[in-house]
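Feature request, filed as a ticket because there's no other form

It would be nice if the structure record came with a short human-readable summary line next to the tokens. Right now we just get the raw output. Example of a typical job, pasted below so the devs can see what we mean:
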Amino acid sequence: VPQLTLHTTADPLVPVQHESTYADVVRRAGTNSLLRQAFVDRWGHCSFTPAELVAGLEALRHRVESGRWASVAQPPALQASASAILYSSM
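Raw output as currently delivered:
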């Protein structure tokens, strides 16, 4: 099952290094192509904006529907998507 993880870079509850450990487990299982990880440069645990969460869901939807990630889960694409969502709601 495709999975996109979102993590803040300064999470006081769950260190960002946990993402590397999780990625190692996924790689060893041979399912690395299903995983994408994205990081938000922010302090706090799960302190994502609503637009960032929607952008992540849209990237995951794209992966499920198309069968590939393409560039939708890369940081610039996620940021552009979140910005577009934010500005379209103003």
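Something like this underneath would help us a lot:
Residues 38 and 74 are 7 Å apart (CA to CA).
The first strand starts at residue 3 and ends at 10.
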